């Protein structure tokens, strides 16, 4: 599947400290798709109340080592909170996969979870329940209203850093230190 470049796809949105929406306060969201109809992304720094083992159990997927089953599932956003989204490297060999970049993919089909449980999944993957969505022009408006910063995404940010470090780290990638912003003063 060829990668179709879009204006913000493969960028992360970094919520500015003044963003009051509880769904997105201090969030980092990877934009997976962006076109004239709007944008779709996955929040990559919010834990859900579920582990991957619990999701496997609910879906009747067997297998997976202890570390995989203990992996925290992310709260990917307020849209379709009952749907699973797997953000991963390793190609588009699963049934329902969107290529975000040449090396980053989003899959929504069950077969990737089954492959992960068998030890045959991608090298790096995060699972999220729900996604974030913006209507036509909405995201662009929110950016001009200073709700979000944008930065390039990278594998370390998406797959390796602890969840609670991703917001500051994403901002740091573009030289922003939230501790020096007036709206951030007094927030720990």
What does this structure look like?
- The chain has helices spanning 52-59, 66-70, 110-117, 138-144, 155-160, 166-172; strands at residues 11-15, 28-35, 38-43, 47-51, 72-75, 79-88, 97-99, 105-107, 125-135, 148-152.
- It has 188 residues and is of the alpha+beta class.
- Strands 1, 2, 3, 4, 5, 6, 7, 8, 9 and 10 form a ten-stranded mixed beta sheet that branches.
Set out the fold topology.
Layout: E1 11-15, E2 28-35, E3 38-43, E4 47-51, H1 52-59, H2 66-70, E5 72-75, E6 79-88, E7 97-99, E8 105-107, H3 110-117, E9 125-135, H4 138-144, E10 148-152, H5 155-160, H6 166-172
Parallel strand pairs: 5-9
Antiparallel strand pairs: 1-2, 1-10, 2-3, 3-9, 4-5, 6-8, 6-9, 7-8
Signal peptide: 1-20
Family: Belongs to the UPF0301 (AlgH) family.
Keywords: Signal
Helix content: 10-25%
> How many individual helices?
6
What's the β-strand tally? Answer: 10
Could you give the order of the helices and strands? Answer: EEEEHHEEEEHEHEHH
Strand content: 25-35%
What is the radius of gyration computed over CA atoms, rounded to a whole number of angstroms?
Answer: 16 Å
Query: Which whole number gives the mean pLDDT?
Result: 91
User: What composes the largest sheet?
Assistant: 10 strands, mixed
> What would you call the structural class?
alpha+beta
Oligomer: single chain
Uncertain runs with pLDDT below 50, 5 residues or more?
Answer: none
Protein name: UPF0301 protein LEN_3739
GO cellular component, one term: cytosol
Organism: Lysobacter enzymogenes
Pfam families: DUF179
């Amino acid at each position: 599947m060829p990668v179709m470049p879009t204006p913000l796809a493969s960028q992360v949105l970094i919520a500015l400290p003044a963003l009051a929406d509880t769904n997105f306060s201090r969030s980092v969201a990877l934009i997976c798709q962006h076109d004239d109809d709007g944008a779709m992304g996955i929040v990559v720094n919010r834990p859900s109340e579920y582990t991957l083992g619990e999701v496997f159990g609910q879906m009747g997927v067997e297998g997976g080592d202890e570390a995989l089953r203990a992996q925290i599932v992310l709260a990917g956003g307020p849209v379709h909170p009952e749907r699973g989204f797997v953000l991963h490297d390793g190609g588009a060999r699963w049934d329902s996969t969107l290529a975000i970049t040449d090396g980053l993919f989003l899959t929504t089909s069950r077969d990737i979870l089954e492959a992960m449980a068998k030890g045959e999944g991608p090298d790096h993957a995060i699972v999220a329940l729900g996604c974030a969505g913006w209507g036509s022009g909405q995201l662009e408006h929110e950016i001009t209203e200073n709700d979000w910063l944008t930065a390039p995404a990278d594998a370390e940010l998406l797959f390796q850093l602890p969840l609670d470090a991703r917001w500051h780290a994403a901002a740091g990638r573009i030289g922003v230190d939230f501790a020096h912003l007036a709206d951030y003063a007094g927030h720990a």
